[in-house]
Amino acid sequence: MKPIIGITMTTNNGQYCINEAYVKSIIQAGGIPVNIPFGVEIDADQLLDGVDGLLLTGGVDVHPHFFDEEPHLKIGHIMLERDEIELVLTEAALKKNLPIFGICRGIQLLNVALGGTLYQDINAQYENEAILHQQNARRREASHFIEITKGSLLHEIVGKEKVAVNSFHHQALKKVPDVFEVTAKASDGIIEAIEMKDYPYCVGVQWHPEEMAIADDEHSKNLFKSFIDACKNQVEVEAKVIRT
Ligand code: MN
Questions:
Q1: Separation of 43 CA from ligand 1 center, angstroms?
Q2: Is residue 42 within 8 Å of 36, Cβ to Cβ?
Q3: Strands 4-8 and 53-56, sheet pairing
């Protein structure tokens, strides 16, 4: 059985939309994608009974009220209704031990959901000198290196301590709650990946592996495969529950 993956969406001019790369990379890794809307009434609990994993996608900035700050002058677009449903979905998914994969905004949402904070704008707020995290290159092309923590799940997945990734973010993780381990950083110290300790699979990355995976990048494909494998385990656990 292929695992069913719930994928969050964004809106544009009254239309729900999703970058094709998220959907294609899930299919490429062996999952069945379903898109989850927001701004409408959803029973997150019941919805998640029907999926085997949750993919939190990229997009606009998380509302700073969710980490007790007022908006900085350099904050970008925010969508309160999207934050609300994604926070509810994350909480409900964690209760069900569902695998969660957060990409770009997704890693930020995960961090905030568990009590962390963000740099609302790296250039305005980061204490050190930052490298370029909003690349002027095609989405599938890598632009900066990340250093991966030895012994982490990410290290196991990627199999290397240093890889090049793409980068399209002006925000970054600031305070990271203890439930997470920071598993990758850029050379300027900006956090690029986290994973939840003592949890089946909850990984967040600041880059966009979906764009690189569909362009055949090996470490990005491995990342999606690891997520789908974790979701397959979820299907097997459910099957056991139904059988007993
Ligand atoms: Mn970056």
A1: 34
A2: yes
A3: parallel
What average pLDDT does the segment 47-56 reach? 97
- The CATH architecture annotation of domain 4-243 reads 3-Layer(aba) Sandwich (3.40)
Structure tokens at 145: 């290196």
Cite the active site residues: 104, 208, 210
Mean pLDDT of the region 156-181:
98
pLDDT of residue 97: 96
Cα–ligand 1 centroid distance for 209 (angstroms): 12
Q: Which position has the token pair 């964690």?
A: 94
109-153 tens-digit pLDDT: 999 999 999 999 999 999 999 999 999 999 999 999 999 999 999
> Using an 8 Å Cβ cutoff, are 79 and 11 in contact?
yes
Phi, psi of 213, rounded to the nearest 5 degrees: -65, -45
- Region of 91 on the Ramachandran plot (φ > 0 left; ψ -120 to 50 alpha; else beta): alpha
* Domain segments of the chain as ranges: 4-243
